[in-house]
Amino acid sequence: MALVLIGFMGAGKSTAVVGLAAALGVTPLDSDLLLAARFGHPLAREFELRGEESFRAAEEELVCELLTGAAPRDVVALGGGSVLSSRVRDALADHLVLRLDVDPSVAWERIRTDGDGEERPLARDRDAFLALHAERAPLYEELGDVTLLWARSASGDYPVLLGRGLLRDASRADSVWPLDRSASRSFCITDETVWSLYGERLSEPAGKFAIPPGESHKTLASAERAWTAMADGGTTRADHVVALGGGVVGDLAGFCAATYQRGVPVVHVPTTLVAQVDSAYGGKTGVDLPAAKNYVGAYHQPAGVLVDPELLDTLPAAELAAGWVEVLKTALIAGGELWERVSAGGDVDERTILACARTKLAIVAADERDSGGRQALNLGHTVGHAIETVTGYARYRHGEAVGLGLLAALRLSGLDGLRAHVRDLLRARALPVSLSGDEVDVAAIVVATARDKKRTRADTTVPFVLLDAPGEVRVGCEVQPEDLRAAVEELAV
Ligand SMILES: NC(=O)c1ccc[n+]([C@@H]2O[C@H](COP(=O)([O-])OP(=O)(O)OC[C@H]3O[C@@H](n4cnc5c(N)ncnc54)[C@H](O)[C@@H]3O)[C@@H](O)[C@H]2O)c1
Question: Ligand 1 centroid to 375 CA: how many Å?
């Protein structure tokens, strides 16, 4: 099967086909470019000279030739309208179809601002453009076997592939693997639980290192053991790490990849809700110190992320609930449709996972290294991390601690009504809404909060992320020590 990219104008197919083909070591095949070469002039000129019907006929011919001749692992991008042809749709059946997902308003901006200077006949008017997107979106959804998000960041772009059943077996995983396996061997870092459940879904790695499950193993000692296993197994700079697991494995494996021989690529295969909606994207990697969480680490963007929501079917209910807190956090940051859906309760489906991934990737694309907007993602985490540290990374799951941190952040934001609503949402999932009953030292949590690594000078307070409303986030907010103490004390009653 070839990988065939479909999607609307401005989705970024031309960029993605080049990036994906380079990663797989093949030549990109872009039907728009090939068609323009066949015409001997730009596509818009052809539209003008002979009209849309004649253009579509020529496009159908070329695309069918391309699809019939495509070899396994070829990467082909199709013009946005080409899938209107039933012949093209039939020809797609032999290939794996990646639907490139894009927010229509982002697509419009992209076409206006970073177009190739070529006028697009179907993108002259914003309303007509958005209406055409709405009309075609169901067709793209129906045809796509897998959703592709093309993650952009200052230090490199990468594919995020999302689809139920994407990793149902090793051959399917191989068909979407975002690196050239013939040139790069894989070294898998995982945890024992995940390996026993899902190890066989990936092709046999050249080497493997598994930690016992849990946050208490996200340490430098684990990293050292992983580096040693990589060195003993002869892992070279041409090889890559696979992070198979939840956020703990992802952070540890990403850190090992960032530092082993000064950096090798990492492919994330997230297996928890936390990892599928949040931690697998954006390139933050690291380990905990006894003094504070995530205190040692590096930015290291993935070479690709493969997301199969089916893997969540085995996740224990308590882990699913804890992971849902990151969904809630993302929805509070994003506002709009995602917030409406999440605040209404209900299960997390593929659409919600996709919306969370999209939200995070957009934030990271604008501020990869946390100097501004990315700090929004820390909503609820300042107090949440402090709770985790003070309780020795053992009492609360990460998501549970962040849920408590969200309650503190909403109190500090002065949003009493929203805090009450969020509290109900947490309670409905049997998540903790207070520290009561636990022997937790409130003063120690306040002290640990002050040690948060978002602080930039030893003598300054920690900048907080606060909300004005869902979708309206303020970063770098100063919080008075007595207000912080009151917000944490409130959790203890
Ligand atoms: N780097 C980032 O941007 C970022 C963002 C958010 C969170 N994080 C980090 O993520 C970590 C929390 O991640 P987590 O909640 O995924 O925890 P985790 O990785 O510890 O996984 C939770 C538990 O679920 C088990 N498990 C994993 N996948 C499973 C599956 N499919 N079926 C059955 N069991 C499964 C694991 O073995 C483990 O016991 C924290 O360390 C946090 O700091 C990082």
Answer: 21
Ligand 1 atom 34 nearest Cα: 315
Select from 253, 364, 240, 357 the least CA-distant residue to 309: 357
Q: Is 275 in the pocket of ligand 1 (CB under 6 A)?
A: yes
DSSP string for residues in 400-430 = HHHHHHHHHHHHHTT-HHHHHHHHHHHHHTT
Instruction: Tell me the helix, strand and coil percentages in the chain, rounded to 5.
Output: 50, 15, 35
Pocket lining: 274 vs ligand 1, CB cutoff 6 Å: yes
Please answer whether residues 90 and 67 qualify as being in contact, where contact means their C-beta atoms are separated by less than 8 angstroms: no
Atom of ligand 1 nearest to the CA of 248: 19
* Location of structure tokens 């990492």: 266
Q: Which two tokens stand for residue 230?
A: 């990589």
Q: Of the residues 272, 363, 406, which should be mutated to test ligand 1's pocket, given the most ligand atoms within 8 Å of the CB? A: 272
- Ligand 1 contact, 197 CB (< 6 A): yes
Ligand 1 in contact with 257 (CB < 6 A)?
Answer: no
The neighbouring-strand residues paired with 128 are none
* CA 192 to ligand 1: nearest atom: 37
Mutation choice for ligand 1 from 218, 268, 279, CB with most ligand atoms inside 8 A: 279
Q: Ligand 1: does its nearest atom lie under 6 Å from the Cβ of 384?
A: no
pLDDT tens, N- to C-terminus, the chain (493 residues)? 899 999 999 899 999 999 999 999 999 999 999 999 999 999 989 988 999 999 999 999 999 999 999 999 899 999 999 999 999 999 999 999 999 988 888 888 888 776 555 677 777 788 999 999 999 999 999 999 999 999 998 888 999 999 999 999 999 899 999 999 999 999 999 999 999 999 999 999 999 999 999 999 999 999 999 999 999 999 999 999 999 999 999 999 999 999 999 999 999 999 999 999 999 999 999 999 988 889 999 999 999 999 999 999 999 999 999 999 999 999 999 999 999 999 998 889 999 999 999 999 999 998 888 888 899 999 999 999 999 999 888 889 999 999 999 999 999 999 999 999 999 999 999 999 999 666 778 899 988 887 766 665 555 667 899 999 999 999 999 999 899 999 999 998 7
CA–CA separation, 145 vs 148, rounded Å? 10
Spatial contact of 268 and 275, defined as CB atoms under 8 Å apart: yes
